[in-house]
């Protein structure tokens, strides 16, 4: 860039560098996807095309940053990318990392849309967009807890949504009645309601719905019990 008397404005820029020696988690999440999913008529509670599209977009992000990413994990409209503690990506600048991950993810999502939603074009007034944040975590124990936290969230949400929508779609309850029926119930009670009232064994639901999706550095998709496998996932890191 040519020197000019205006160049001093650059001095106002801040460089927020993520702490050294810390693992970095970049989490992206769809903006107003409740509305977005209604507009594009996602199947409830789990539209498989939408999940596969999220996974495909995440896989391409992982492959692009394969030297820095350890693993990625996603569910619903979110994905977490876990970066090595010694990464020097963009000199660990938070705004660079967050903005580049989320814009690459979004452009992948848009570009891949027609592969998954073959009969429905994206509407310019309803385009998908995502937020992003970076968090630095100081040790592997906390990173394992981070992933376990997202995994438990997947389980809790999916069990609730599965029973809720079965009560509505199969048993003819209104959404309000279904909500009341589930209010205050524990996990095993929800599974019992699903079995006795809807004839569905939760264990037989698709693994991707129950467990979310892990993307390895090689770009493989795994639907595994994160808590049980957590030590294996981070072996060597
Ligand atoms: P960084 O990733 O650090 O932003 P960069 O290569 O994008 O690196 P910038 O300082 O953002 O560098 O500069 C953008 C560059 O893109 C310009 O120097 C120019 O070479 C090119 N460029 C941008 N817009 C145009 C355009 N309309 N026509 C031709 N070249 C362009
Ligand atoms: P925010 O902008 O605050 O993130 P949001 O509407 O995106 O708001 P989230 O908590 O992120 O809220 O939840 C995402 C919502 O998107 C889910 O509650 C669900 O309604 C919808 N959704 C996402 N993925 C799917 C899918 N594969 N199938 C069906 N619905 C989905
Ligand atoms: Mg969202
Ligand atoms: Mg979300």
Automatic annotation (TrEMBL):
It comes from Torulaspora globosa. Its EC number is 2.7.7.79. Binds 2 magnesium ions per subunit. GO terms for molecular function: GTP binding; magnesium ion binding; tRNA guanylyltransferase activity. The lineage of its organism: Eukaryota, Fungi, Dikarya, Ascomycota, Saccharomycotina. Keywords: GTP-binding, Magnesium, Metal-binding, Nucleotide-binding, Nucleotidyltransferase, Transferase, tRNA processing. Its cofactor is Mg(2+). Mg(2+) 2 binds at residues 29, 77. Residues 6-138 form the tRNAHis guanylyltransferase catalytic domain. InterPro entries: Thg1_C_dom, tRNAHis_GuaTrfase_cat, tRNAHis_GuaTrfase_Thg1, tRNAHis_GuaTrfase_Thg1_sf. Pfam families: Thg1, Thg1C. GTP binds at residues 29-34, 76-77. Belongs to the tRNA(His) guanylyltransferase family. Residues 142-218 form the Thg1 C-terminal domain. Adds a GMP to the 5'-end of tRNA(His) after transcription and RNase P cleavage. GO terms for biological process: tRNA modification. It is an enzyme of class 2 (transferase). Mg(2+) 1 binds at residues 29-30, 77. This is tRNA(His) guanylyltransferase. It catalyses: a 5'-end ribonucleotide-tRNA(His) + GTP + ATP + H2O = a 5'-end phospho-guanosine-ribonucleotide-tRNA(His) + AMP + 2 diphosphate + H(+).
């Amino acid at each position: 860039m040519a020197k000019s008397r205006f160049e001093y404005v650059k001095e106002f820029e801040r460089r927020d560098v993520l702490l050294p020696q810390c693992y970095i988690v970049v989490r992206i999440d769809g903006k107003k996807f409740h509305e977005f999913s209604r507009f594009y008529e996602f199947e409830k509670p789990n539209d498989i095309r939408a999940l596969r599209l999220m996974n495909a977009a995440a896989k391409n992000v992982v492959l692009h940053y394969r030297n820095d990413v350890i693993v990625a994990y996603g569910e619903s409209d979110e994905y977490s990318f876990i970066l090595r503690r010694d990464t020097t990506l963009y000199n660990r600048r938070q705004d660079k990392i967050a903005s580049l991950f989320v814009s690459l993810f979004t452009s992948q999502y848009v570009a891949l849309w027609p592969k998954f939603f073959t009969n429905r074009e994206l509407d310019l007034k309803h385009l998908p967009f995502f937020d992003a944040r970076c968090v630095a975590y100081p040790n592997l124990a906390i990173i394992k807890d981070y992933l376990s936290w997202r995994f438990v969230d997947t389980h809790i949400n999916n069990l609730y949504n599965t029973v809720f929508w079965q009560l509505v779609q199969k048993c003819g309850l209104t959404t309000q009645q279904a909500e009341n029926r589930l209010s205050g119930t524990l996990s095993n009670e929800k599974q019992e309601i699903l079995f006795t009232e809807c004839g569905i064994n939760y264990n037989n639901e698709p693994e991707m719905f129950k467990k979310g999706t892990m993307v390895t550095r090689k770009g493989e998709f795994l639907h595994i019990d994160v808590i049980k496998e957590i030590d294996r996932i981070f072996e060597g890191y």
